[in-house]
Amino acid sequence: MLKQNHLPHFEQAVLPHLDAAYNLARWLMHNERDAQDVAQEAYLRAFRFFPGFRGGDARAWLMKIVRNTCYTCLHVNRPLQDATEFDDNILPADSSAPNPEEGVFQNEDGTLVRRALEKLPANFREVLILRELEGMSYREIADITGMPAAGTVMSSLSRARGRLRQILTDLMSVRHRAKFTANCTCERMST
């Protein structure tokens, strides 16, 4: 059991990262209630194992616990249906493709971006969340995910961004076709 004299150190080192921990859990779990449960379980684990924490980056240490707790929960409670491995032959990188993210990020509620992120395989979603939303370094992401080197993180991020770009392009074209169809229907009804 944790001694009382560790409590102030735990609160100082770990509690400031509660929002980041919950954010990662929410994106990995796809469910508010599960994310809350996982974040709470991760904090309990962090509290229990804090005496073994030897200093360093408490945020990265906590995020690794959150990630592992999420995957343990997903593995035990439901299959990882969206954890697909990336294959360059299926979706090659296309550097000349238009950049639909710029227009999408101007969308007030970001619904399209959220939908696109949810469609990503878990391994791509987590590196994007850690880098783009949480602002973590390549080294921190490598430590959290267990990837062997920062170069692997950069490669995964590149692939994740490419996949996200493709999903956004597809979602935007579906949205555009729906608006076009709705406009055509309205014009025919008004004539």
Overall number of strands: 0
| Distance linking N and C termini | 77 Å
What percentage of the residues does DSSP assign to strands (E)? Answer: under 5%
Q: Main beta sheet: strand number and arrangement? A: none
Question: What pattern of helices and strands is seen along the backbone?
Answer: HHHHHHHHH
Portion of residues within helices: 55-70%
For the CA atoms, what is the radius of gyration?
20 Å
Low-confidence blocks of residues = 80-109
What is the averaged pLDDT score? 78
Which structural class fits the helix and strand makeup?
Answer: mainly alpha
Notes on the protein architecture:
With 191 residues, the protein is mainly alpha-helical. 69% of the residues lie in helices and 0% in strands. It contains nine helices and no strands. The chain has helices at 7-13, 18-29, 32-49, 58-77, 101-105, 111-119, 122-133, 138-145, 150-190. Helix 2 (18-29) runs antiparallel to helix 7 (122-133), helix 3 crosses helix 4 and helix 7 crosses helix 9 (150-190). The longest helix has 41 residues, at 150-190. It is elongated and about 75 Å long. The chain starts with 6 loop residues before the first helix and ends with a helix. The relative contact order is 0.11. Residues 80-109 have low confidence and may be disordered.
